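Schema walk-through. Below, the input block comes first and the output block second. Nothing else is stored per chain. Lengths vary across the set, and this one has 1523 residues.
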Amino acid sequence: MTKVYGTGTYDFKRHRVAEYPVELSSQVADKPIESKPGSTLPSSITLSEIQQDRLTKIATENWIQTGGKKPEKPFDPVLVKEIYDTELKVTSGRKPVPLQRVMILEVSQYLENYLWPNFDPETATFEHVMSMILMINEKFRENVAAWTCFHDREDLFKKFLRRVLRLKEGRDLTIAEKTNYLVFMINAFQSLEDDIVNETVLSLAGLESWHSLSYGRFQMELCLQPDLIKKWRKLSKKWVTEAKKRGEQFDPSSSLEANFVRGLIEEFIEVLDHEVFGNEGDGAMGIQSVDDACILYCERFMEFLIDLLNQLPTRRYLRPIVGDVAVVAKCRLSALYRHEKGKLFAQLVDLLQFYEKFEIKDHDGTQLTDDEALQFHYDRFFAFQLLAFKKIPKLQELALANIGSVHKSADLRRRLSGLTLEELKDVVCAKLKLLSKHDPWANNKNFLTEVVISFFEKQQSQKEAINALPLYPNEQIMWDESVIPSINYSGEGCLALPKLNLQFLTLHDYLLRNFNLFRLESTYEIREDIQESVPHLLAHINNEGETAFRGWSRMAVPIKEFKITEVKQPNIGEEKPSSVTAEVTFSIRSYRSQIRSEWDALKEHDVLFLLSIRPSFEPLSADEAAKATVPQRLGLQYVRGCEIIEIRDEEGNLMNDFSGRVKREEWKPPKGEFRTVTIALDTAQYHIDVTDIAEKGAEDVYSTFNVLVRRKPKENNFKAILESIRDLMNEYCVVPDWLHNVFLGYGNPSAAQWANMPDLLESVDFKDTFLDADHLRESFSNYEVSFTNPDGSENLEPRPPFRINLPKTLKGNANAVPGNKVSEANPAHDVDMVGASSKEKFIVETYIPPDPGPYPQDQPKQNSVRFTPTQVGAIISGIQPGLTMVVGPPGTGKTDTAVQILNVLYHNCPSQRTLIITHSNQALNDLFEKIMERDVPARYLLRLGQGEQELATDLDFSRQGRVNAMLVRRLELLSEVERLARSLQLPEDVGYTCETAGYFWLLHVYSRWEQFLAACAGNEDKPSFVQDRFPFKEFFSDTPKPVFSGDSFEKDMRAAKGCFRHLKTMFQELEECRAFELLKSTADRAHYLMTKQAKIVAMTCTHAALKRRDFLQLGFKYDNLLMEESAQILEIETFIPMLLQKQEDGHARLKRCILIGDHHQLPPVVKNMAFQKYSHMDQSLFTRFVRLGIPYIELNAQGRARPSLAKLYNWRYRDLGDLPFVKEAPIFHRANAGFSYEYQLVDVPDYEGRGESTPSPWFYQNQGEAEYIVSVYIYMRLLGYPANKISILTTYNGQKLLIRDVINRRCAPYPFIGPPSKVTTVDKFQGQQNDFILLSLVRSRFVGHLRDVRRLVVAMSRARLGLYVFCRRSLFEQCYELQPTFQLLLKRPDQLALNLTENTSFTERAVQDVGNPYIVRDLEEMAHIIHDRMNQLYQAQYQHYTPYTEDGVIEDGDMETESVPPVDGPSEDTDDRKTRPDRAADSDGVVDGTKDETTEERVDMDIENGSSSENNVPPENGKADES
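--- output ---
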């Protein structure tokens, strides 16, 4: 096949990043393993080689625990020094640590078992402290909890931190050590939520640090903040008093807090000035050499300062120090800033300058509006002009000029150039006090000018900057590695990216960081798509010297013609055009029908990309290709985005029109092979391009486009989301006042809890929440509950529903516990709502609900879930105003709790509207289906987005479906009105319209009812009076049971009121239908439904972000927001749904925000690892709130898994217990037939001499585990386990494909075995469950990303009845983070234990009874067992010819012994069958000219279908529960 450039090692589509750097196999193939000190491990090492490594041997002898016992060797500080000097210390090169040596030490628990237990702050050596720093840094790089092991000795840890802060005293560190020290400080300042860290770290950023300010700057800062003068005096006395207590004289110059940050900054300036560049050779002509390690240090220092300035607690007092040293000015004038190797450094300096000048009042955190920022600038400049007028004669002209003519950088520089060095120094240091006269740079005129300019020049407003930014990425940003790193980002360097941590300066800062990250993440995905689709076009230069294409690509097509058709005038106050329109023509002749229909499906608002491809005339040589960038190898010159306005066929007919211009009956299929798309170009990008052509003579980009690229619709919604964020930045964005500070991460974390909110619901009608009185007593067990009737008398036989006046004492004791506190509750019992010392009285009012009506459909649907006390606490919190956070561990009934909150909220606040948001359509549908089972009328429910068609219901809850339902209901009700008129002997035309029906209600129905009530007033003593005089008796003659008995006036009167309620509801519904009668267009009806009619509106977070503009335009309103799966939703996608409505008089309408999720399970998916690891983009708002210590309610009883299985993960939660159901149900008491244990870890050794393998980088497979796991699956199927009850999970995509391949060969050909329910990754299976899970952990060298405990929790919590984990024991038992789970797993044999006496999938054996275990030694023995079972099956078939049943007997004719491949063991052609990424189909679905059906299509057809051909049995509970 023709060589395609750009699809080699650079084609990093589909694979996750490595957890450690992997060198390409060609580079390491011949590299021998070394065990001498300082050796580095190549990526292809085996576990045995790691075990033979010197460090591993030292670890085994000194600190690795084997069998729960530690080695008896005493601690040896000399060994620590020797390991540091020989293995960890770096003396040359860019990298500050030998990464793989650090990894081996960290995984062996060097920190937890050796360094920390033997740490003494008085005697610990420098090497001991530095080794601890390196281990902690490595934990941060791996994204695992770094401070956990220190919590048992907090006081000692604080002494360790003090020791770290004084580590540099009297010692010169190498540049690598300085970098490692700096990375530790960065990590510490990013961990302010941890109490043991923040006290020490924040003391470095306090007011005491101002002792290091120059005297002039100190005076200026106190003048700007007069409130601080009093605080300074008070603290000064305190510092002196504390020094006296220690018997010392207070000396600011020796104080650590006063000088730490200043000292670090001065050290950095020294490195920047003198160490980055060294001279090689003699004399002035020496060549400058660049020290890469120094560059990394400088980049890291910029990251450190940015982190300090973008969090308010550290910014407040440290920003003046950064300004006093003039860090930004010095960096901008440094040689590195302009050097080609300083590109990332320069970007970081610009980011630092942005945060230094950020529009905020530092001391109270108030955001400056654009007007306030401008006024502040004018006031400051005016003061400077006044000073110049009085004191600086040479600047008289500047003093008298208008500000607009002098506040730009170039103007200021020109005016200041007239001053001599001494005069300028006097202005800067003495008069303006911007700098100390002792500063080493104070004699540099350029520097002094730069300081004045940076202080006084007008900054571009942040809004202007963001509006001038193109929304579509171009080729420059796409391949800029410092902004969008390729996938092999290992976490060792820093990037010019914002971080999402705990706190944000302002809402604008929050939006800006999210905007930039979301834009770059989508750019990365676009880049991947371009790199995948363009090479298949096979671009080349033809004989005419023009670009031509030999190949074809599914997602990219050559352009026949491109022309710009219209450029509109700019809007007032703007420079860019208001719109730019173009037309693109392309041909779909070469495509087959399926792909042709995909191109024909393009519609308005879809995003396309215009590419300019110009390949090199000669193909690049191997060396050139290795050095070339991706655009150079692809011949890619330019990339521009655009949005479709309309698409037409060859005859000019409009296609895919949803605006109503083409009537449905006039629609025709598209004609011809040419398509013309009218597109809107990005006006900001167009303005930049045109300006470059005019000013710099650049090439006209728009005359060069020759390729059009489309993307999959589901992945192509980035532009709408970016527009939503940009719109929010341009609005005066109001988060509700009660949420504002909590949202930004400041103030009291409990401020938004319901107990601290005004306007509480004093009395709450809980409707069907409580099943009986005992249920209510259990829920309030700390109270003495007494029941009363509505008249105040005591009720001795209470029955629901109950109305509760929530007592004031409940306010402060709702069981929401802050995220950083441990619950004091006893895990043996349910957490009670209230921790009251003595039982208080708790009054509950019972009432008899009114008769709903005589027909079955009038009866309300009832809840049947017996909520636990914790769930009741969540329901109470959810129905009260404020922020409610509910953590729902796997199987604890999050959805049921959410639905009951909605149900109770609807009945208590019927006028309020609620918005439901989830991450996935599946979760939204689960929630919706359960709401429909409660007493909420279907006419008030609405489901928006693409997933409504998947709802398992006969009713259609989409907008169109609801409109149609209302119209149908209108006709039904009007016919009922006609029937009512007939029964009253009145003309039937009253049921002509909703309006006439309304008059009929007032004139005839309601008036008759009032007359009836008046007549009853004096006749209560006549039992049959109601029956005789009821005016609508004839209408209700068709009820299933007689309405009146005639025996009791009270009973009959209650029935009469029920009948009237039925009529009233009927006419009320008709009144609601009236709008649909008046509005004629479908769109108007749909809009009315969404904005007025629906009380509960549900959509996914993506739909909310996409349609925000539409919602605002329509005047969409809601009072409550409930968000499910909120720990799986990106921070910004959680924020946007809070702002889908316009503010009312400057205030937000939102009253309640209910977030339900589980931060102990996997976070949102972020494809680029750099954004995930470096920028924490995968941190959800829910997780951030938990980190901030905002109280949450944690559901504490699971009803999914056997209690023994739940123990594998319940250690991660506060006090997760079990519901009675899982303790009592017989299915949980019976053992798994054929297995001795219900869960087991199976140790899988090397298979054919190999453990894990990587056919290509980051594509992990383990053949031994794949074969073993499929063998066990076959064994289960032969016993009769249904295929749809078994799922196979793994932690890597490579292994998933390999297992699917093995299944296709060994299982799929046999109808009685077939594929399992799912073969997928742990990440993809989150939120689902199955009875039996077979789990492959793949890795045998390093633990990999399972070290993220959240992934472990998901993996362990998917199984209900049986979990079998296949992995390398020796690797995983040593992993510190996974200890609680693996210690439990390893209490059982690590070889599979089977009960071979059981021959069916049913057994009466108790789960505790292991029976007669048969220990399977290895994979080969498992293959023999299957072989024997198969032989028994053959014999049974030939002897009895019995049809196949669940017990595993074969149906006649199903067995084909000759033609079917072997089922009973691994095949010999293992290498050929292994799934490799290079076998995956290219974008055209073709591999080497043939379809790769085995891997892709067959798996899609067979494995994802949820059941085997035989066992299409639905799960017992109807559907999988959510987790």
